[in-house]
Amino acid sequence: MNQYKSEFLKVLQERGFIHQMSNAEALDALCAKETVTAYIGFDCTASSLHVGSLVQIMMLYWFQQCGHRPITLMGSGTTRVGDPTGKDESRKVLTDEIIEANKNGIKQVFEKFLTYGDGPQDAMMLDNADWLLKLNYMEFLRDVGRYFSVNQMIQRDSVRLRLEREQHLSFLEFNYMLLQGYDYLEIHRQTGCRLQMGGSDQWSNILSGVDLGRRLADEELFALTTPLLTTASGAKMGKTAAGAVWLNPDMLSPYDYWQFWRNTEDADVERFLKLFTILPMEEIARLAALEGAGINEAKKVLATEATAMLHGREAAEAAAETARKAFEEGASAAGLPTVMIARSELEAGIGVLGLYVTAGLCASNGETRRNIKGGAVKVNDKAVTDHSATISFENVAEDGTIKLSLGKKKHVLIKPV
RNA sequence: GGAGGAGUGCCCGAGUGGCUAAAGGGGGCGGACUGUAAAUCCGCUGGCUAUGCCUACGUUGGUUCGAAUCCAACCUCCUCCA
Predict the structure, then answer these.
(1) For a tag site, which of A2, A156, A222, A318 has the least CB within 10 Å?
(2) What is the pLDDT of residues A317-328, one digit of tens each?
(3) Inter-residue contact A102 to A80 (CB < 8 Å)
(4) What's the whole-model pTM score?
(5) Helix (H), strand (E) at residue A126
(6) Strand B nucleotides where any atom sits below 7 Å of a protein CB
C-alpha cells in the first residue's frame, strides 16, 4: 500500500475512493503543500442527481474538508449537445429551459455537502455553457484540435473497444473528449485548477484535458477516478422498486432514502460505510466486524449517517424512528410517506385498486389486482382478498389515517383532508 | 453512390399467415425461508367500466376472412465495396 503524505489522498485511499490516478506522487506532494483546486463535472440530464453521483460528491466533500477548494461544474453546455453514448436510442433533445431547470434542481444537493463562497477554500460553481456555447468551430479546431492525435485517440479504451466490436462511433462522440478536455483547460485558466476527478468511465476524457494542459498551458494537471460502483451481487447502484434513488427530497423522501441504505447487502456494508458516511475508520471497523443478524445494527447506522449527510440529522433520525416503529413494532407510524386525499372522495368510497394507484404503490389497477391475488395487499395490516373492496371513512384508524401496505416493506399512509 | 443485413414487450432474444398479449432468459414485483441481507425455491410481470373490449412486434399504406409474420414506400441503424 502506498503511504500518502497528504491528508486528502490518505482519506481517499483508506475509504476506497481511488481507482486510477495520474502521477500519484506529484499529486500527493501538491496536496500536502498547498491549497489545491479540483473539479468534477455533472450533466444536467435530470432535475436531480441520484446515488450514482454520490461517490463523486463525497469526494468533493473530503477534498474541502482537507483544506482544498472544490469546483462543481454544471455541464449544461455539453448537455445541450446531448451525450450520444446510448447506441440505438436517439436521446430526446432537451430544451434550454429544461436544462436550466435541471441545473437548478441539481445545485441544491451540492449545498448540503459543500460550503460555497468567496474564500480560498470555499467551493465554486461553474457552467461549461459559459464557454462552450461561444466556441467557434474553426478556431477550436485550430487552437485545440491540432493537439489531439487521432492515433492516440483511437487507442483509448472508450474508442478502441467500440472499434474492435465494430460498433458505431459517431464523430460527435469522438469529439466528446475534446470538449471535456477543453473544459479542463478552461477551468484551469480561470481558477488555477490542477485536478479533475470523476468516475472510472471518465478516465480517458480527463486525460485529454491533462494532455491539453501540458501542451497549451505548460502545466501538469492531474486526474483521479473512482471505481465503478456496483453492489456485491453485481447490480448497478441506484435502482430501486420506485426507480432511481434520487437525491432531491421532492423526488425521493428521506424515509425512502433511509430505506434504500437500510436494505444494503451484507457484503457491501463496510464498503458503503467508508464511502458514504464520515464516521471515523475505527467506528466503521467496529461495525464491519459485526456478524449475522448483528449486521443489521451496522445497516441502520449506515442508513442514518448517509441520510443525515444529505437530508440533515433531524430528518435522518425521524426516518430511523419511523422505520423502527413500522418494522420492529409493526405499528402504523406517522412519518411514513403520506398521501392526501379529498375528504369528499373518501366519503363516496374509493376502490382499493384505484387507491393503490393514487398512493403510488401500484402503476395500474391491473397491477394492484395482481398484487391482491399474490397476497401482497394489506389495508391497516389486514389482507385484502377482494379486488372490488372499497375504502371509506370506516377504514380511517384512530390516528386519522389509513395505512396501505404492499408487501412487507412498502407502506403509505392515506390522510383525508 | 453501390451491395447486403437488421429494427419484437423494461432489456436481451425466439417467432416467417390463424393455436401469439407474443417462447426463453435477464431485470423487476410478490410469496416462502431469514436478519427489512444474500443465496435458493414458488408465483406474477400490456391497459380497461373485464366470461368481453382496446392497445402492442420501426412508420405509413396494401394483400388476406385473418398479418409480428406476405407486398410497397419511407425512417433509423449496422456491415462490406466505392
Answers:
(1) A2
(2) 999 999 998 887
(3) no
(4) 0.87
(5) strand A124-127
(6) 12, 27-32, 34-39, 43-50, 76-80
Q: What angle do CA A205, A209, A213 make, to 5 degrees?
A: 165
Mind giving me the DSSP string for A106-118? HHHHHHHH--BSS
Nearest to A15 by CA among A285, A313, A200: A285
For A248-302, the pLDDT digits (tens) are 998 888 998 999 999 988 988 999 999 999 999 999 999 999 988 899 999 999 9
CA–C1' gap, A27 and B73, in angstroms: 62
Q: For residues A58 and A66, give the distance between their C-alpha atoms in angstroms, rounded to a whole number.
A: 12
Strand partners, A38: A70, A195
CA distance A183 to A273: 33
Contact in structure between A226 and A59 (CB atoms under 8 Å): yes
C-alpha distances in angstroms, A306 versus A4, A229, A247, A398? 27, 16, 11, 33
Report the DSSP beta bridge partners of residue A405.
A378, A411
